[in-house]
TrEMBL record:
A Pfam family annotated for this UniProt entry: SNF2-rel_dom
Presence of keyword Cell membrane: no
GO biological process, alphabetically ordered: cell division; double-strand break repair via homologous recombination; reciprocal meiotic recombination
Full protein name: DNA repair and recombination protein RAD54-like
Key words, A-Z: Cell cycle, Cell division, Hydrolase, Mitosis
Residues of the Helicase ATP-binding domain: 225-392
CDD domains: DEXHc_RAD54, SF2_C_SNF
Originating gene: rad-54.b
Spans annotated as Disordered: 98-122, 728-775
GO molecular function, one term: DNA translocase activity
GO cellular component: nucleus
């Protein structure tokens, strides 16, 4: 990027600047000599005759004042200039607003996430904003002070105006995220120069069938009014689970965005849904818009329709139930909607039905029906849907019937033109749905803390027994107590009887939920999942633990299906079929880690909880793969529960060190795991750190994120400013293996390096230990930070960061009930598909 040096002396003038002469949408970030700039956000550069202001996107904050810019005419898109201590990249010049115009009046133009569409800028404004983020969940827009916000630099995508001066860094990204242009043919035919693209928030996540679905909807709906027969209606009749609402949002959003250009495609969109689905749509919007301004008014009362009228520019969608729409059709008529979407549109199958007539009376030119069952054995019903979206194309019902018998081929052509239907079998499901993995750290209960420290004091040479005790304790102290009592009864002089002394008075477990941190969490989790209408599989290594969970689930009115080592083979398939077929959220599937081996297909569930971890990561991977596998159409959420600061963290660390959690491996040698423990290892394993830390594993990573949820390469690099090159060199020296760290816009490369790093680590364990900041760091078996490098691919969340934590919990599906779970920390990762 070329630079122009402008006169940017610090501005100390008064607060009422002179007339505005130009304004630009910009990206801004701290000035530095870095090749890859760290942009902190989108902003506005407002130029007056005697000064200029760098403002936040919503114009609320003035980031920097400076004296007047010279050479405004030279500020073409892509140019980088310095304003005070800030670097600013010009995105595009926009219309000059009157200087004293109220902020609210400017909002639609300035703050709108729908920037004017021209090739090469709208796409990349959005992209830069998202930076290296890769999913609706990951790209949390943090409501943080500006200095903490960051977005990595992503260069222009298409038709870059600045290609002649463009930096070399742009080429890789151009290939990585190609824009999904919907009106490509028009551009090729030179009908327009403005590209209408699918918003990158969607584009990054679309599967092939969804892309063709979006193109299909867009092509049909853009045509508008159907009075002359060329009308633009469509039926999207995909099977459940293929993403009808996602395709609808992406296509209609493109239509609405297009309205900012001369094309004027649409300004408003009415989405009518069954009452039971209103909240689902709200959640869908929430998911894709996250903390951005919510684009829809969800109508729950007639007043909301009135509200919508006044906010239509900011919130172009109105989501309303069929019932409410019918009752307040007169109010809806006042608003001239451009697009109507009818979810579960087979409700309109009755040709003379009142609902159908009411909706037609709205005279909305573009109509989209979403349905999983377009043809319900009745030709008239099917005609009713076709005629609703494409009036006059299919003639009268009599003509339709005649065409059916006389010219079926012609009819099929017409139907194909306006209806798209794919079944799950049609769609290439080699691409599995998203997989969200969580490691949740649960605070140990007071009894657990107490007994754990007693076990530490009670070190004997019998490591195997002690490890077993510690793991039982982490599941529930009552399990350990019962086990010890049983052993003591069998033989009065049992060598571990003294441990019973740990269970005295106040520390006598009675089997309550609150006595185990993980069990407390589990109860809330399964309640949440039931409310979310999702089925859950719970996995444990121990029969006694499964017994305990079973009792608890039954107490909570779940029906328990259980498969463990005792289950006969013929019964297994029956259990699995019952579970998968019913998909009843009040069913819980309990599975023992060892029995849940290969071949078990539990795709009826989309949530899986690993209540305890195995030493062997392969066993855990096998268990997790029960739900995330071929045939699964819903996003999967997999939760691993860990009691903070206990042996469970050590096991986790060992798993990570051994293989990296993300690796699916068929078999690894772990028979020697316990045998290879040194005394020092054991001491480390039994040291309880839960009172001193919210996550021992995170401490060991020495990760600087502080649990804010951002990846390391996304975090503000305030300190490394101009001397960043030096810092990079330092990193290279330390690791000795990584020869390039600086590629903050190239996640893939980072991942490869990490992988190589982790792999190396298994054989190469001879590096000097890092400075021990915590006693455990120096412990044998955990010698290097690099051995936990796998975790740098995960996001780390601490409840201390309330906003991001709340958002994390919501996305993890854990905010449905009033929770008193004490989670101390969490790791999160989404798999790419
Ligand atoms: Zn971290």
């Amino acid at each position: 990027m070329s630079r122009v040096v402008l006169n940017v002396d610090s501005y100390e003038g008064n607060d009422t600047p002179s007339a505005e002469i130009a304004r630009f949408v910009v990206l801004y970030g701290k000035a530095s000599t870095r090749k890859h700039k760290i942009w902190e956000g989108d902003g506005l550069l407002v130029c007056f005759t005697d000064s200029c202001l760098l403002k936040s996107e919503d114009e609320r904050d003035v980031i920097c004042r400076s004296s007047a810019l010279k050479g405004l005419d030279q500020l073409e898109d892509g140019r980088i200039i310095n304003i005070g201590s800030w670097s600013v990249e010009i995105q595009e010049r926009i219309a000059t607003g009157p200087p004293q115009k109220p902020i609210s009046a400017q909002k639609p133009e300035i703050q709108s996430p729908m920037p004017p569409m021209t090739p090469g800028n709208s796409e990349n404004v959005e992209n830069r904003k998202r930076g290296g983020f890769s999913s609706p969940f990951l790209g949390i827009e943090l409501p943080k002070p500006l200095s903490k916000r960051s977005a990595t630099f992503v260069p222009p995508l298409i038709g870059s105006e600045s290609s002649s001066s463009g930096g070399s860094s742009s080429s890789t990204i151009q290939e990585k995220i190609p824009p999904f242009i919907l009106n490509e043919q028009d551009i090729l035919d030179r009908k327009t120069t403005s590209a209408v693209t699918v918003d990158t928030r969607f584009a990054r996540h679309l599967r092939p069938h969804q892309k063709s679905g979006i193109q299909f909807i867009f092509d049909r709906l853009r045509r508008g009014s159907g009075k002359n027969g060329g009308g633009g209606g469509a039926i999207l009749a995909d099977d459940m689970g293929l993403g009808k609402s996602l395709q609808t949002m992406a296509a209609t959003w493109a239509l609405l965005k297009g309205s900012k250009t001369a094309q004027q495609l649409a300004n408003s969109c009415l989405i009518i849904v069954p009452s039971s689905l209103v909240n689902n749509w709200k959640a869908e919007f929430d998911k894709w818009w996250r903390l951005m301004r919510f684009p829809a008014v969800i109508a729950l009362t007639a007043n909301d329709i009135t509200t919508y009228q006044s906010t239509i520019k900011l919130m172009p969608y109105l989501v309303i139930s069929y019932d409410l729409a019918q009752r307040h059709v007169e109010k809806l008529k006042i608003i001239r909607f451009d697009v109507m979407v009818c979810d579960e549109g087979h409700k309109l199958k009755n040709l003379d039905g009142k609902l159908r007539k009411t909706l037609l009376s709205l005279e909305i030119p573009r109509r989209l029906i979403l349905t999983g069952t377009p043809m319900q054995n009745d030709f008239e019903e099917f005609y009713s849907l076709l005629d609703f979206v494409r009036p006059s194309v299919f003639g009268s019902i009599v003509e339709f019937r005649k065409m059916c018998s006389d010219r079926p081929e012609q009819l099929n052509e017409l139907i194909d033109e306006c209806m798209l239907r794919r079944t799950a079998a049609d769609v290439d499901l080699k691409h599995l749905p998203e997989k969200h993995e969580y490691i949740l750290f649960c605070a140990a209960s007071p009894i657990q803390k107490h007994v754990h420290s007693e076990i530490c004091d009670y070190m004997t040479g019998d490591a195997l027994s002690l490890i077993f005790f510690a793991r039982q304790l982490a599941n529930h102290p009552k399990l350990l107590l019962d086990n010890l009592r049983e052993k003591t009864e069998k033989s009065k002089a049992h060598k571990h009887s003294p441990l019973l002394l740990a269970f005295d008075g106040a520390h006598m477990p009675r089997g309550g939920v609150k006595e185990s941190g993980k069990l407390t969490a589990l109860v809330d989790m399964i309640k949440c999942f039931r409310l979310l209408q999702e089925c859950t599989v719970i996995v444990s290594n121990y029969i006694e633990t499964l017994d305990m969970i079973q009792q608890l689930c039954e107490y909570l009115n779940f029906k328990v299906l259980r498969l463990d080592g005792k289950t006969q083979v013929p019964d297994r398939q029956k259990l699995v079929r019952t579970f998968n077929d019913h998909r009843d959220p009040s069913n819980i599937f309990l599975l023992s880690t060892k029995a849940g081996g290969v071949g078990l297909n539990l795709i009826g569930a989309s949530r899986l909880v690993l209540f305890d971890s195995d030493w062997n990561p392969a066993n855990d991977q096998q268990a997790m793969a029960r739900i995330w596998r071929d045939g699964q159409v819903r996003p999967c959420h997999i939760y691993r529960l860990i009691t903070t600061g206990t042996i469970e963290e050590k096991m986790l660390q060992r798993q990570i060190k051994k293989t990296g959690l993300g690796c699916v491996i068929d078999a690894i040698e772990v028979g020697d795991t316990i045998a290879t423990f040194t005394d020092e290892d054991l001491k480390d394993i039994f040291t309880f750190t839960g009172s001193a830390t919210e996550c021992n594993t995170h401490d060991l990573c020495e990760c600087p994120c502080d649990g804010c949820g951002m990846l390391e390469n996304e975090m503000d690099e305030e300190d490394d400013g101009d001397d960043v090159v030096e810092n990079d060199a330092e990193k290279i020296d330390k690791s000795g293996k990584i020869d390039k760290i600086d590629s903050d816009d190239d996640e893939e490369a980072d991942d490869e390096e990490l992988e190589a790093d982790v792999t190396d680590e298994v054989v190469e364990d001879s590096q000097e230990p890092p400075e021990a900041t915590k006693p455990a760091v120096a412990a044998a078996g955990l010698r290097t930070i690099a051995s936990l490098a796998e975790l740098s691919r995960w996001r780390h969340f601490s409840p201390r960061h309330a906003d991001t934590w709340h958002h994390f919990m919501t996305n993890a599906g854990l905010s449905q009930v009033d929770t008193d779970v004490e989670l101390t920390f969490a790791f999160y990762q989404e798999s790419q598909y």
